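Example 3.2
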Amino acid sequence: MHARLRFVALTALLLGGIAQAADSLTIDVHRDVNCGCCKDWIKHLESNGFSVNDHVEPNMATVKQELGVPPRLGSCHTAVIGGQFVEGHVPAEQILALQARPDLLGIAVPGMPMGSPGMEYGDRQDPYQVVGLTKGGDLEVVAEYPGN
């Protein structure tokens, strides 16, 4: 009987871990209806294992303000995962790394750099940074991507 109880307990832990992992890969994306690069970024997220809740918004400026995205970090779309914002064309790997950074309110790729996820048009790849916003209001470079 002890082996069966141990099996049930281990199964429950495993299933709980799978459910938690699935929840951590669910992201809410807020975008303008007419933005093509936003749709391409969503495809990037989905191809990297994210489940995307796509929200078409009539006023992105209001969404950004409500989520605490400073104007200097602005881009075309804003996402939320685990209570943290993700602004602009942030690579999936950096969104995954954000989960280990509870000290950050969110991360951003300001502007719309060519070659970033969702902005892959032609061979051009501009250098860009992923910037984190700390709870104290400071900016911190969390990743850098070189251009070509």
